[in-house]
Amino acid sequence: MKRITISVVILLFILPFSSFSQENKLYAKFPESFESDNKLNYQIDDVHLPSGTWRLDNAVIQSQKYENPTTGTHALRMAMNHTTSAYAQMMFDLPKGASKVSFWYKCFALDKPSMCQLEYSTDKGKNWHAVGDLIVATNKNKYTEAVFDLEIEGRVRFRINKIGLGDGSKNPDISNGRLNIDDFAVYYK
Predict the structure, then answer these.
(1) Which single residue of 58, 90, 151, 169 has CA 20 to 30 Å from 185?
(2) How crowded is the C-beta side of 86, counted as CA atoms within 13 Å?
């Protein structure tokens, strides 16, 4: 009886620590809240942020009143009415894979909805793979959190691809408004 009690006590002591070691850990310098750099035009450019260098194509970092960031004063905003995609793309790899990615998104100001896709690369950005379903941003007033549980091992980088659906000012059937992104976080096991 004494031996069984000791075994149960040991299990009860060890079990919480073994499950704790499997919890998601946030990479250093994340979440990226897009606070350190002020990119004012939509032309493609690399910006240096606390998490690393990001390539922004058809995207800006600003602090206008319609950005309403989830933290800080700035948020990322992607252009509207393009036939080509807009990107916010990491130009660096994270070394320990990824177990989860989350970020916050919303429509900008009074714009129409828009669509985006989280993508990842394990070959330094040569090839990109979609994660989950397309995200449709419809809320103009507050941010919605997107959360993706992943099992990516080894070096990895991510990008948000805002789908270029066309010019909604010329065709009212096209919803391709501007998109705000904030607090992009990557976790590993």
Answers:
(1) 58
(2) 26
Range of the domain at 70: 23-188
CATH number, position 173: 2.60.120.260
Residue 17 lies in a domain: no
Is residue 70 within 8 A of residue 185, CB to CB? The reply is: no
Instruction: Determine, yes or no, domain membership for 155.
Output: yes
Residues in the chain: 189
Residue 7 lies in a domain: no
What is the enclosing helix (H) or strand (E) of 5?
Answer: helix 2-20
Of 79, 93, 89, give the one whose Cα is nearest residue 43: 79
In this prediction, residue 66 carries a pLDDT of 78
Distance between CA atoms of 50 and 79, rounded to whole angstroms?
Answer: 23
Distance (Å, whole) CA 169 – CA 34:
29
Segment 68-121, tens digit of pLDDT:
899 999 999 999 999 999 999 999 999 999 999 999 999 999 999 999 999 999
